[in-house]
Amino acid sequence: MISLEDKLKNLPEKPGVYIMRDQYNEIIYIGKAINLKNRVRQYFQNSKNQYPKVAAMVERITDLEYIITDSELEALILECNLIKKHRPKYNVMLKDDKQYPYIKITVKEDYPRLLIVREIKKDGAKYFGPYTDVTAVNRTIDLLKGLFPIRYCNKNISRAIGKERPCLNYHIKKCIGPCQGNVSKEQYRELIDSIIMMLEGKQEQVLKQLEEKMHQAAENLDFEKAAEIRDNMNSLIKIAEKQKVISSALIDQDIIAFALNESESCIQVFFVRGGKLIGREHFLIEDTKLSDSKEILSSFIKQYYGSDALIPREIILQEEIDEINIIERWLSDKKGGRVKLVVPRRGEKQKLIEMVGRNAEDTLRLLIEKQKNDTEKTMGACRELKDILELNTVPARIEAFDISNIQGVLNVGSMIVFEQGKPNNRNYRRFRIKSVEGANDYESMREIIERRFVHGLKEREELEAEEKDFELGRFSVFPDMVLLDGGVGQVNAVLPVLRELNINIPVCGMVKDDKHRTRGLIYNGREIELPKGSKVFRLISAIQEEAHRFAISYHKSLRSKTSVKSALDDIPGIGPARRKALLKSFGSLKNIKKASLEELEKVQGMNRKAAEVVYNFFNS
């Protein structure tokens, strides 16, 4: 195996992506470089000149790998994809990975439709958004339906004309009825053009067109039609009054500003379309106390626009970021048109960024207040637990264990972790029971507790020998309390294990009532009833449900894998390689059963004879 020192000596002077790993082979940081040799070696120079975050990360690096690319732009794209997939600990990460609704108009169709989607595709359609308020999107769609009687069905219009009966929308005059041949493509396109102008914020143009049609209808003595157009105009005027014009540029813009506190950041984005504010959203980025503002802003842009976000022509930023030119090129390639990143120093845009910045500060303040209230609830429950059980300390970290099996088959165990009264699913663990056959919950619980703490003690010895923090290990951090799903039997099975290992941690059993709901705790040989409705009752109920859910989900996944494996194993002549190829190609046993002979034959490693064997096995 090549050592880390040898890898550092032989780094290429080429663009690419580098991947840092810790002693458990977990990816802890992903970055890109125009020159891998120069960039990566900087991390291992004198730590006095490094940011505290970088110094802490370098201490944990035990291995690295790199991927050479043809250009810095390719490296940026690969970096974005890898960060999204692996979510490394030391990269700046968005707390929420949100997908917003967009309004899509299928302009490539002869008779286009209006749809709500959450994914942007390069399909020639027109997209409008993002809309941060789903209710507002639905209201907009309903209004457009009322104003413009276009179709909302999936019919193939060319086939439907003269052959299919019209739907209810046609009869109640909500659809102009292209399926009946009542409207030409040109007439229908006029309705679509009006909708597009509406969504672009050009209501004035639509109003002008409607006014001309209203006068024309009145001149033709079609007063009913004129009154209908007048009502539509009044609805449009109300919409126009609600939309706030905040930019005279009249182009699509995103305005991005942020606020920082000791531990996290709040990024605020205002979405401006055609000069009008259509929505805003905030994003939280955690653990940013050791990160500089440029890194935070740059990481946000790459993660946010690396997803399916609609990219505007102009993005206004609160401050300069590193690699601004390469990010601008990347965004332009994604959009298929020029995108500008602007950092204003004066004028209207500077005032806009200041307004967004004030909103970011206010949002962060409100979020901090909410976090304080939430912490009071969760830690309040932990303090109640300490008082009820008369413990010496507040149990800030609680580990709960559960067993799952069906008639003794596929025994599994789960370990969940609650810290500060909230689940920490990054520390959840699963166990396959090895030493117990049949349904024996006591011995199964004893096994997983023993494995968990023996593993933890070994990790502690290794980390102490290397003078490293226990936080680096998966099991080296011990809980303040152990909760078991069960009663006296489970507790009595586990206590001797901890005594043998010289571990002194409070152990409680979580007991349920006749309706399988949380009732109380078993501690020191007696049952302690929890006051219903109290903070501690809600905490223990949540822990018990989560431990059970996690164990059951593992059991179900194993049952599913076992059933697939056994079914494919029964097919003569289909070995491990072909089974793997079939599952990779079709995704599930159900899809393999549905596949045609021709589809089976196309799978890598399959020939006509093998395809016939599989097809006949499921269809004979």
Describe the SSE topology:
Layout: H1 4-9, E1 16-21, E2 27-33, H2 36-42, H3 52-60, E3 63-68, H4 72-86, E4 102-105, E5 114-117, E6 126-128, H5 134-147, H6 157-160, H7 168-171, H8 185-199, H9 203-219, H10 223-242, E7 244-245, E8 253-260, E9 265-273, E10 276-285, H11 293-306, E11 314-317, H12 324-335, E12 340-342, H13 347-389, E13 397-406, E14 409-419, E15 422-423, E16 429-432, H14 441-465, E17 481-485, H15 488-500, E18 507-512, E19 518-523, E20 526-529, H16 535-569, H17 576-586, H18 589-594, H19 597-601, H20 608-619
Parallel strand pairs: 8-11, 11-12, 13-17, 17-18
Antiparallel strand pairs: 1-2, 1-3, 4-5, 4-6, 7-10, 8-9, 9-10, 13-14, 14-15, 14-16, 18-19, 19-20
Helix pairs in contact: 4-12, 9-10, 13-16, 14-15
What's the CATH class label of the largest domain? Alpha Beta
Second rung of CATH, namely the architecture of the largest domain = 2-Layer Sandwich
Count every helix, treating DSSP H or I runs of 4 or more residues as helices.
Answer: 20
As a percent range, the share of strand residues is: 15-25%
Q: pLDDT below 50 for ≥5 consecutive residues: which ranges? A: none
